[in-house]
């Protein structure tokens, strides 16, 4: 395939986990259920959603820690969701890397941090001499802000603070010279004043190394800070995709509206109490309906029988029947007032 | 005075390397382990210097049979006229070497199978565990007796193989369960994302983290090997020409030492087995306790 | 600058308000492998009747330690070396066994982050609530169950779930059961220690709003502990900021947002990304928390402070009043309380 400016393209991706229940019926946990979106080269795309929405699974699919049940994932034009040879898979590992959520768990406590980063370098470039590897390690340490590098070389992960550990995680990810980085809630286990530095580091690295990020988070404010585009996920589906600022200023999907108005924001006026149902979606259900049906105050009868397709509104996509005939954002007047009364069901 | 104070300050601010800290935690500050290691070292020294320590040749039958302990024969004489003290000292060699060698042999198999089953999980793990389960059902001692009957001669080497061939099972189970919980951790995922191979992940990433469990298991395996050797010798299956503690007990029993009230024949080997076994237990259990403490709770063994 | 609508409801604390909890010069030490950790260092603050008081700070600052000290639930490795915890005038630290038993649950109760996962899995929630009542009041089992049902209604759980087991409920519902348990004996003070940190944002929103409504109807005071500053700014009347075991600032929310006095408070406020307003580059606070086993002399924030002056290095600043309800410990405050 020719060089496109799309770094990653998810096309109708599904990931079902089989659950053992009974001898006859096989039930599946539909962690990711028909997701399609693109990430352009050099951009940061945020995937936001609450727990269980499938965002972490999506991250693991991109990193080939899981294999997709159905669908295609095109990375730089090549579909990686199919079976890959050992060689191809190994090469892929040097193109896509991951920054994990838990800086305490994602570093092996038994090794020195220089070993951890050095091993990553060696794995993908066995021709380097020991001295060259050491130089690269020092270089990486300094790139991620661990200076003077010599102070950190001999340390073990448990001798470093949370922020320092996360920098090592970033250094390790950069060690193989990837073009795409998947960041799975990289700052949710760090104090905010430290997390901000990590986020700033990631932003800086994006500019200097021209990286593409898939940034997973449940915190909308951090998505706004980091990403120019955003995907809102719910129950394994992506309900709304578009420009981060546009979505935050005027969310279109009823779920996006709920998510935004529930996020704490001291500088925003809350005009009335919000009544939101807390019913959790059933990820094992076989029913064909909009995943948000049970909690949607604007649900129509149709929503319980069909799954809405993604409608294009401007440069956004919304999966909601309310927007079926809309040409622009202002055609459908939907805002937080739809939650001002409890659900009548 | 100032120089002394400076030196003292320097040594206090020396950063202890991580390996040293682990060593300190598991051995230096671990009284039980120190006692255990002390006892083992004692026996090892005895085993190495046996010919020097033992006053007489253990096979020599120059003494008056059934003689009680005296200045000439510290632990008395057995029914054949052999000095019991010399026998006990030489017996240390066989017991320790069989125990340790069989223990090591077992550990290699047990660790490998356990790591593989725990890391791979899924079908491979299940299959391996079913094989282990099947073998566990067969009574160890019975199989060993049968095997012993088939083998042409029962040298020390065969003894080690037989004992080793069956003792790895418990270890595999234990290592597997620890590996299962380690393999779920994020650093293993990170290793996979980097493209590390299975063998490297198993041995260089997971193994260092479950080392205390392996050590604890090894210790128990060695103890069990020693006791098995003693049992086999007691049953008369071991090599009759090799003097071991179990063999001494076996002959003592066969020669009605009880009726003759020859406590000095049965007590030394029995006590030695118990003491050495206990020392291994001290080490193993204390290691497990520390490991479990670090992980906030109990550890399945 | 427009504030959250709930700021209309924010209580303005005056000196006439009854003080429910008064902490004076509390210091708590922990025994760690390397030495003694001064987890809480000479902390003083008051909570008034009906006040929503927030305790903010990053990990390791000592906020949970204070909460556990109030309920006297510290682990044995911790020691309260000085100070008073006065609940309605009486020092909790001097309570005997029976007084303490009555204090906990009847006068003050606690909701923990992990509580929702530590409900007894083999007892129905109705029974667990009833047990709490029966332990403190002489009523029949029937009455206790009836009160339990009322408590569940308070937290918006349907009565019919009284016979449910904890694992049958979602995380949000379990945490509501815990809140119901904390309120069932109508205490005067409820301490919340990161109660919604493990919950999703929609559930968190619902629960927090419910807590505020209940506070209005039942009239209890709240001590709310979390590291999520935006959440606290939305809900609390006054917020205390803690750093490395010391309380560096206490202020009504309006003051905190408009005129933070302590450089650390300023730094914290700068570090939270927001959903509205202009997008600007945020800054973290360089450096890290000092070692609490061998703390430096002088102000503990010295190394990381952009406002520091020479005095700060050698002398620890005292916690003093700036204006009504607003206190700060700093030699070079960002605001002295003079301009309005």
What structural keywords apply?
heterotrimer, A: 345 residues, alpha/beta, 8-stranded mixed beta sheet, 4-stranded antiparallel beta sheet, 10 helices, B: 301 residues, mainly alpha, 13 helices, 0% strand, elongated
- Oligomerization status of the protein chains: heterotrimer
* Portion in helices of chain A: 25-40%
User: Which structural category fits the helices and strands of chain B?
Assistant: mainly alpha
Computed Rg of chain A: 22 Å
Note the overall shape of chain B. Answer: elongated
> What proportion of the residues of chain B form beta strands (DSSP E)?
under 5%
Number of H- or I-type helical stretches of chain A: 10
Mean of pLDDT of chain B: 80
Give a short synopsis of this structure.
The complex is a heterotrimer of chains A (345), B (301) and C (340). Chain A is of the alpha/beta class and 345 residues long.
Describe this structure in words.
The complex is a heterotrimer of chains A (345), B (301) and C (340). With 345 residues, chain A is of the alpha/beta class. Chain A has ten helices and twelve strands. Chain A has helices at 55-62, 86-93, 113-124, 130-143, 149-153, 162-174, 192-209, 220-226, 244-249, 254-262; strands at residues 6-19, 27-40, 44-48, 70-75, 78-79, 96-99, 180-184, 212-217, 229-234, 237-243, 311-313, 316-318. The longest helix of chain A is centred in the middle third of the chain and has 18 residues, at 192-209. Chain A starts with 5 loop residues before the first strand and ends in a 27-residue tail after the last strand. The mean pLDDT of chain A is 90. Chain B has 301 residues and is an all-alpha fold. Chain B has helices spanning 2-13, 18-28, 31-48, 50-53, 84-120, 122-137, 140-150, 156-183, 186-194, 198-206, 211-235, 245-254, 263-294. Chain C contains ten helices and twelve strands. Chain C has an eight-stranded mixed β-sheet with strand order 6-7-8-3-9-10-12-11, sandwiched between helices. A four-stranded antiparallel β-sheet of chain C has the order 2-1-4-5, with helices on one face. In chain C, helix 3 (125-136) packs across helix 4 (141-154) and helix 4 packs across helix 5. Chain A binds chain C through residues 50-51, 161, 163, 191-197, 199-200, 218-222, 224-225, 245, 248, 258-271, 273-274, 276, 278, 280, and chain C through 1-6, 58-59, 170, 172-173, 200-206, 209, 227-231, 233-234, 253, 257, 267-268, 271-277, 279, 281-286, 288.
